[in-house]
Amino acid sequence: MKRDLLAKVIAARAARLPVAVITDLATGEERMVARSDAAADPLSAILDKAFRFDKSGVENTDSGEVFVTVHNPPLRLVVTGAVLIAQALIPMARAAGYDIWVVDPRGAFATGARFPDIALHAEWPDEIIPQIGLDQRTAFIALTHDPKIDDPALEMALRSAVFYIGALGSKKTHAARLERLKAKGFTDSALSRIHGPIGLNIGAVGANEIAISIMAEMTKALRLG
């Protein structure tokens, strides 16, 4: 890889911007394509699949073989609510390659004893989430059942490019949540991004099964859109 192209890739990685390097295997020519520009690229279908599945490899095109090298930022999961479901979900998310942040201003919940070896913030979401950052390689879930904690975080998630937003609660709780967010100016289209009640409908019972349903729904959103 030429030095100027390498510098661009390094800069994109530092800024958590997904990019791909396309190498023409016949000529050796290389070019970089950002995920945000992929839809307009001649290889849009190939790039879309490569970005969604974190898949680098040789691809056949009308002009010959190319090697697509994907440089996706690490996956992240931001959770509001240091609750039992979060405790069950975190090991699965870690195994799937997520870096994890848990945010809960309630000090009795947000303890290192309950959440060892993760980024834990006993602060209000509007204080810490802007510092963490929310982008298209980030999933956000709200688990507290407390509008004072979850709603401000959901507002930030809705204004971001996160690939998944989930919120715990019954259909009645979720309907009330949507009404509060509508009063904040969010449209029905924007609010449709929130998966609520959270998780795939697999008849889950208890924290562990609910965590499985959430992890499955997150994965579906990541890979299939």
N-to-C span: 31 Å
Encode the helix/strand succession as letters.
HEEHEEEHEEHEHEHHEH
The order of strands across the largest sheet is 7-6-5-8-9-10
In total, the number of domains comes to 2
Helix/strand structural class: alpha/beta
Q: What does the main sheet amount to?
A: 6 strands, parallel
What is the gyration radius calculated from CA atoms?
19 Å
Q: Name the CATH homologous superfamily of the largest domain.
A: NAD(P)-binding Rossmann-like Domain
Named CATH architecture of the largest domain? 3-Layer(aba) Sandwich
Question: What layout of secondary structure does this protein have?
Answer:
Blueprint: H1 3-14, E1 19-24, E2 30-34, H2 44-53, E3 57-61, E4 64-71, E5 75-80, H3 84-95, E6 98-103, E7 119-121, H4 125-132, E8 138-142, H5 147-158, E9 164-167, H6 171-183, H7 188-191, E10 194-195, H8 206-224
Description:
The structure is a single chain. The protein has a six-stranded parallel sheet with strand order 7-6-5-8-9-10, with helices on both faces. Strands 2-1-4-3 form a four-stranded antiparallel sheet, with helices on both faces. The longest helix is centred in the last third of the chain and has 19 residues. It folds into two domains: 69 residues, no CATH class; 150 residues, Rossmann fold. Helix content is 40%, strand content 22%. The two termini are 31 Å apart. A hairpin with a 5-residue loop joins strand 1 and strand 2. The chain is built from eight helices and ten strands. It has 225 residues and is an alpha/beta fold.
